[in-house]
Amino acid sequence: MASKKGGTLYVGVTSDLAQRVWEHENGIGSKFTAKHGCKRLVWFEEHDLVTRAITREKTIKKWPRPWKINAIEAINPEWNDLRPWLL
């Protein structure tokens, strides 16, 4: 999740991405996303096992910011909101 292009980034894991995005959009996803306005889904990965998803989340959270930006821009150079892909 991001606040805007080049803005604040949030990394998380969920078993229901559409529901979690809705929660972030409505200020109930987390205190961090509500405070920083992270309402735009700009990047996501799918994993078969929750344990793999959690491991990946922890890894990405340790990445330097430029690595996160590169991952986003590799698939979404304009930082468009990817919510429509969830429908």
Automatic annotation (TrEMBL):
<dbReference type="InterPro" id="IPR000305">
    <property type="entry name" value="GIY-YIG_endonuc"/>
</dbReference>
<dbReference type="InterPro" id="IPR035901">
    <property type="entry name" value="GIY-YIG_endonuc_sf"/>
</dbReference>
<dbReference type="Pfam" id="PF01541">
    <property type="entry name" value="GIY-YIG"/>
</dbReference>
<protein>
    <submittedName>
        <fullName>GIY-YIG nuclease family protein</fullName>
    </submittedName>
</protein>
<comment type="similarity">
    <text>Belongs to the UPF0213 family.</text>
</comment>
<dbReference type="InterPro" id="IPR050190">
    <property type="entry name" value="UPF0213_domain"/>
</dbReference>
<feature type="domain" description="GIY-YIG">
    <location>
        <begin position="1"/>
        <end position="70"/>
    </location>
</feature>
